[in-house]
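Extended Data, panel c. Modelled sequence:
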Amino acid sequence: VRGVFADVIAGATNNMEYVLLATLGNSTNFGNMINNVEARGACSNGSRGIFWGGSYDTGTPKYAVTSIEYINIASAANSANFGDLSDYARDAGGAIGSATYGILAGGNRQSPTYGAPNTFSLMSSINISSLGNSASFGSLSAAKAWPSGAHNATRGLFAGGVEAGFYSSID
């Protein structure tokens, strides 16, 4: 079983690395991301990894992107285009994935500072097995960036996040 992570620093590197979770050792090159952006949401269904949104931080203000990229976890290779976020370009969204669906929640729009109206509460969903754009899935209880996602086979949740201050709520 592999763990894959994007070692992305906007404007500097777009590498992905992986580790074999059953063994100790250093990470190994997996491939490159299409977009050299940071602050993406990420999820998986165990076979396919999804990287949502992100932002270029090469100027002022930074700007978020709508792209969704994917990888096949079993095969080290570059990412490929999955589709686009159908609502807003964003970074700093939290993500969860099940065997079927991926959900991206919250995020920060095109500003380097947090706070209304830059953060928002929208949730977007995709069918992880089918390429295409996201669809609206609902809203969090409050607008926030950086919510942490967790899930099991039955339900998912998003906890914490930041807007003008830190949130301790769980959606």
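The two ends are 30 Å apart (CA to CA). This feature is highlighted in the accompanying rendering.
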